[in-house]
Amino acid sequence: MADLNMYPNLMKRLQIARPPATTVLSPQPKPEVPKAQVAGDTLEVQSGVSHPVNKPSVISMPSPNFGSRPGGASDISAIVLHHTASGSVSAAQNIGRYFQNPDAEVSAHYTIGKDGAIVQSVQDGKRAWHAGESTFQGRGDVNDYSLGIEIVNAGDNRDAYTDAQYSALIDLCAWMVKTYNVPLERITGHRDICIPKGRKTDPSDNFDWDRVKKGVTARLAGQMPASAPSVDPDDRAGDNLAKGTSGPRVKQLQADLRTLGYFTYKEDTGTFADITHASVKKFQSEHGLDVDGVVGPKTSAAIAGALKNKSGSPSTAAAAKSSYTVVSGDTLFAIARRLLGDGTRWREIYSLNQDILKDPNKIFPGQTLKLP
């Protein structure tokens, strides 16, 4: 369980202590727009935007701190930006882990780290606890109908928001605007909705609102490509696996650790919990790595190397089949690093799949890729 004293400024700033859900008597009607199915909820799609605006890759770290939206997902009509006030070096995953503590009684839908990694803590259709006592354009209880985005920043008006953060924020907000039919003028800050006025200061004075709104406008108009490169060998934190993450990549990690004798649970669950965490730490300890339980570039490469030494092949995943099905959050670089033991081999995957991949920066869940 996370230490409640880890982020005292964040706790103090949000001050929401599990706000109760309220009853929406008569939310203002929205114009009729096309419908789309997203995460099980019927959601509205911004009309007049014909080109694709895809949701950026996110790291799923589910928080228990949420409630139901009184008006349902179709009532989403505002986006609220915050800064974490937790120090400039905190990774988005650190905030995500904090939000996973039920005793914290705080959450936001998304957190954007300094490196542009995006953590999702609460599903969009649910009511996160980020706004506290608030009102926006004549309507109270902003948590009921808003999406909350935390941006990692000290909040001291000096700590700079990074280019990677602005790019990720623009991508995420553009997708929200399109998906939920949120007018651009309804992207707002916590400082502008809090009660009483002056109770909050986020995002801080050095946040560039003009850059964000112009960026979102350009993104929706098709004048600005999605920012996060799929082949960037930077190894963004978004490629890391850590406690609280889940999905096919975690399941493959468990299978690889089982092959190496480190993961002994009865099945590969796909959920990175205590047993997987302990297995990773044991592997790291025995291979001279930093023992933090996080599968980043060095640990991932070490696992691939150990598998190669054990079986004579780059990895059990690549040896077992000559193809791979893309899942949410994948990049060509991450796939190459995980399955071939070297992220720079993404070019080989791209070369083999040019019949379906026109741009190495654009791969989509469900695509089946041939492996070298």
Molecular structure report:
It contains ten helices and 14 strands. A six-stranded mixed sheet has the order 3-7-6-11-5-12, sandwiched between helices. The radius of gyration is 21 Å and the shape is globular. It has two domains: 8-220, Peptidoglycan recognition protein-like (Lysozyme-like), CATH 3.40.80; 237-370, Muramoyl-pentapeptide Carboxypeptidase, domain 1. With 372 residues, it is of the alpha/beta class. The longest helix has 18 residues, at 163-180.
Summarize the structure.
This protein is α/β, with parallel strands linked by helices and about 375 residues long. It has helices spanning about 10-15, 90-100, 165-180, 210-220, 250-260, 275-285, 295-310, 315-320, 330-340, 345-350, and strands spanning about 35-40, 40-45, 60, 65-70, 80-85, 110, 120, 125-130, 135, 140, 145-150, 185-190, 325, 370. The protein contains ten helices and 14 strands.
Short descriptors:
372 residues; alpha/beta; Lysozyme-like; Muramoyl-pentapeptide Carboxypeptidase, domain 1; 10 helices; 28% helix
Q: What are the SSEs and their pairings?
A:
Blueprint: H1 8-14, E1 35-38, E2 41-44, E3 59-60, E4 66-68, E5 78-83, H2 92-99, E6 110-112, E7 118-120, E8 126-128, E9 135-136, E10 139-140, E11 146-151, H3 163-180, E12 187-189, H4 209-220, H5 248-259, H6 274-286, H7 297-311, H8 316-320, E13 323-325, H9 332-340, H10 346-352, E14 368-370
Parallel strand pairs: 3-7, 5-11, 5-12, 6-11
Antiparallel strand pairs: 1-2, 4-8, 6-7, 9-10, 13-14
Helix pairs in contact: 3-4, 7-9, 9-10
